[in-house]
Write a structure and sequence with these properties.
Elements lengths: L21 H11 L1 H4 L17 H7 L22 H6 L17 E8 L19 H4 L7 E10 L5 E12 L4 H4 L11 H10 L1 E10 L2 E4 L7 E3 L4 E5 L11 E5 L4 E7 L4 E3 L4 E6 L5 E5 L19 H8 L11 H4 L18 E4 L9 E3 L7 E8 L4 E8 L2 E3 L1 E9 L15 E8 L4 E6 L23 H10 L1 H8 L4 E2 L1 E6 L10 E6 L41 E7 L8 E9 L32 E6 L5 E5 L16 E5 L6 E6 L5 E7 L5 E7 L39 E7 L8
Parallel strand pairs: 7-14
Antiparallel strand pairs: 1-32, 2-3, 3-4, 4-5, 4-6, 7-10, 8-9, 11-12, 12-13, 13-14, 15-16, 16-18, 17-21, 18-19, 19-20, 20-25, 22-23, 23-24, 24-25, 26-27, 27-28, 28-29, 30-31, 31-32
The structure holds MU-OXO-diiron and calcium ion (CA) (2 copies).
The site of one calcium ion (CA) has 6 residues, from loops.
Length: 736
């Protein structure tokens, strides 16, 4: 996520002249390949014919088994970088990259669904000038799509099919200048605008079907559903019912948000916002992760300072400020005024579980997984059927977490898993310089760096350990501060390598997208007492985050000791340091801007700002990027955003997709057979204004006449975030 109204944490960064500690980098580099060579078993697992799990689960864990230790190879050549120079050669302007999607020879990409498309009964087609009402938007595909997952229908014998499923897609945020015909303010700012913006947030759930080779949205499907910033939800888990979650109660209508004079019960919430990346559960539900939710709040009054007391400390630790990210919801909807309704903020920052196959089921905020700026949630089921959820908190110098369910996954009884996410242990990660690490439990009895158990720390003290745990979960960042977790370079997506083809480790990857507050002066760290204002620390470089002023980002990975998610120790290494092989920029004392991406010819798959990260069912690692997107500055050689494919064994990387001007590539999923891939393109041409919405991009209508169904029009007027569908022309598996 970037954009003029979302400035806080996705900026493209400038290099610093501050020295980096290259001895640490060398130490990590020398051993990084050792990580993969050790401990690989040779046993082959069951093939697709040996499925024993339900169809829903089998799409994740028991895909066809490839050879060569869980990696089946890459059968395509890298597409060229989409640079400004390439745009000029193609007849374009020198201030943009080519305004198109490009995939390798032998593949076809088309628009599957775009912002504003009808996705459910009563939905109306997109109007090019964005004159839709809130009520219309609430039945259309939401704005700025991000993480997603394809849940297949199950066919004969419980085998998942690959031509019909439910696609769940996050809608991360809105850009009000293109959301409204006259822009955010235009003729005035009204409750009608707030309601439309709220209706464009959340999650879009739609039925996808392929008939005669063409993918289409089933616009009348009973599975079509919108979840928005106003959808009623249940709050569950250890923090549910706590006083900090008892926000003011309102009656929410199209015309107004009116206080009832009562408080919510702590088990009820309304809406989900800033739904960034996603996860799924092994029992076939969708997880949507609330990331920069602080930006949707605002106030006309000043937010209390961290020094003013517990409330101010909590708001500051999560970056809640009166200006928010420029939304004006609070001016027409008092629920979003952080000063007059501060507990409302505590109802956001969670992972929300949604049943894609039951449109009437209420979404559930699972408090056991902690409260922070959730990027994604990646599960692993180990050989004991224990379930771990791996998660990043995307802000500069925040932490990596895992949640381990107390109960075990039941692969034969879906209903038995319904509340697995309500009890377990949340941990924060500490990465040691010797390539080991520890999971630090965030529990009442855990001793913090100050020598006090968390239950004796004033931030979390309560009537009993149940209340202490509730406070730990609501103030997760502060608990991780107290126990000494490792500050990371903006943890984005997590992804787990499938345990197939003889590979049986619990191995998890996390993108660390960039950090302009690492190794810069004056140095400072996050205070143990949780009083630090979000994103203000400037920690020194360390082994796990070795680049000062980390411009291009890196990817870290770890393996659980004993191949189980319940382990409290792990080993780790850096999978890749992103960079620009051709750069002339030199860091001191040596050049780490070039990165160490493994590609041939050297530099052919360079990327920066890794964000989306996902292993497909065959063991290919897909990485998506989120940088400035117009080929400027640090990205003059790398060009616009992209998706690459990588071999987890060797690090070999190839560039699979390049994207339109000033967009981000985010969100990826496949059909179970691997022959259809869905990829998200978010905010093409961002930062334009209502007076000239297509100033920076005219995508997708500039590239495509109609959508993949061959019918749905792509009217001129607005660039549109979209989901692209990719197939291989010979009908093969994507990436093969
Ligand atoms: Fe919404 Fe951290 O990306
Ligand atoms: Ca992201
Ligand atoms: Ca990002």
């Amino acid at each position: 996520m970037k954009g003029a109204s979302h400035p806080t944490n996705d900026v493209s960064l400038n290099p610093s002249s501050t020295p980096s500690i290259h001895d640490v980098i060398n130490q990590v580099d020398a051993s990084r390949r050792q990580f993969v060579k050790g401990g690989v078993g040779a046993a082959a697992l069951a093939s697709a014919g040996g499925l024993t799990l339900s169809g829903l689960v089998s799409t994740v864990q028991a895909a066809p088994v490839p050879a060569s230790l869980g990696f089946p190879g890459m059968g395509f050549d890298s597409v060229p970088a989409n640079t400004r120079a390439a745009n000029v050669l193609a007849g374009g302007v020198p201030t943009a990259v080519i305004d198109r999607i490009t995939v390798p020879t032998g593949y076809t990409a088309n628009v599957f669904v775009a912002w504003g498309d009808a996705i459910m009964p009563g939905g109306t087609p997109f109007v090019g000038n964005a004159s839709e009402t809130a009520a219309q938007q609430a039945k259309q595909f939401g704005a700025h799509n991000d993480g997603m997952h394809f849940f297949p229908f199950v066919g004969t014998g419980g085998v998942p099919v690959s031509d019909r499923g439910v696609l769940c897609v996050n809608n991360e945020y809105t850009h009000e200048e293109i959301l409204f015909t006259d822009g955010q303010v235009g003729a005035g700012y009204t409750i009608a605008k707030t309601r439309k913006s709220q209706a464009a947030h959340g999650v879009s759930i739609l039925e996808a079907r392929r008939v005669a080779g063409k993918w289409s949205v089933v616009k009348t499907s009973p599975y079509g559903r919108r979840i928005t910033a106003n959808t009623k939800m249940r709050v569950s888990g250890p923090a549910a019912g706590h006083a900090l979650l008892k926000s003011n109660e309102y009656t929410i209508t199209d015309a107004a948000t009116v206080a009832t004079g009562n408080q919510l019960d702590g088990f009820t919430a309304y809406g989900t916002v800033n739904n960034c990346a996603n996860g799924i559960t092994p029992w076939g539900t969708y997880l949507t992760c609330e990331e920069n939710w602080n930006g949707n709040f605002g106030s006309n009054s000043a937010v209390p300072s961290a020094a003013s007391g517990d409330a101010g400390k909590l708001l500051n630790r999560y970056g809640v400020v009166a200006a928010g990210f420029g939304y004006r919801w609070h001016t027409t909807d008092p629920r979003w005024d952080v000063v007059t309704n501060p507990n409302e903020t505590n109802l956001f920052g969670w992972v929300v579980e949604i049943d894609p196959f039951n449109p009437s089921a209420m979404p559930v905020k699972r408090t056991a997984l902690g409260r922070f700026k959730h990027e994604s949630a990646q599960y692993v089921v180990d050989s004991q059927n224990k379930v771990g959820m791996y998660m990043g908190d995307d802000e500069r110098n925040e932490y990596i977490y895992k949640f381990v369910c107390s109960g075990a996954f039941n692969p034969t009884n879906r209903a038995a898993n319904r509340n697995l996410l309500d009890s377990g242990t949340l941990y924060a990660a500490r990465f040691n310089a010797n390539l080991t690490g520890e999971w630090l439990p965030l529990l009442p009895g855990t001793i913090g760096l100050n020598g006090l158990a968390l239950r004796d720390n004033p931030n979390f003290s309560g009537a009993n350990d149940a209340e202490v745990l509730a406070k730990i979960l609501i103030k997760t960042r502060m608990a991780a501060d107290a126990v000494g977790a490792t500050m990371m370079d903006r943890p984005e997506w997590t992804g787990a390598r499938p345990r197939i083809g003889g590979f049986d480790e619990v191995e998890v990857y996390c993108t660390l997208t960039n950090n302009n507050r690492r190794g810069t002066t004056p140095a400072s760290v996050i205070a143990q007492d949780g009083s630090t204002t979000a994103a203000t620390a400037r920690p020194p470089v360390d082994a796990a985050n070795p680049s000062a002023d980390n411009v291009y980002g890196h990817i870290i990975r770890w393996r659980e000791t004993g191949k189980t998610v319940t382990s409290t120790t792990f080993s780790w290494d850096l999978f890749a340091q992103a960079g620009d092989t051709a750069t002339t920029k030199v860091a001191k004392p040596t050049n780490d801007y070039k990165g160490n991406i493994v590609d041939a010819p050297n530099g052919s798959a360079d990327y920066g700002a890794p964000d989306g990260l996902w292993f497909d069912y065959f063991g290919r690692l897909w990485v998506q990027t989120d940088q400035i997107g117009d080929g400027s500055g640090d990205f003059v050689n790398i060009g616009g955003n992209m998706m690459v494919c990588a071999d987890p064994n060797t690090g070999e990387t190839r560039r699979f997709l390049t994207s339109p001007n000033k967009c981000e590539v985010t969100g990826v999923t496949m059909t179970p057979d691997g022959k259809t891939m869905f990829v998200g393109v978010q905010h093409p041409g961002e930062d334009s204004f209502a007076a000239n919405p297509t100033q920076f991009s005219n995508w997708p209508q500039g590239q495509y006449a109609v959508e993949a169904d061959g019918v749905t029009a792509l009217p001129a007027g607005r660039p549109r975030s979209s989901v692209v569908v990719i197939t291989k022309d010979n009908g093969g598996i994507i990436g093969s």
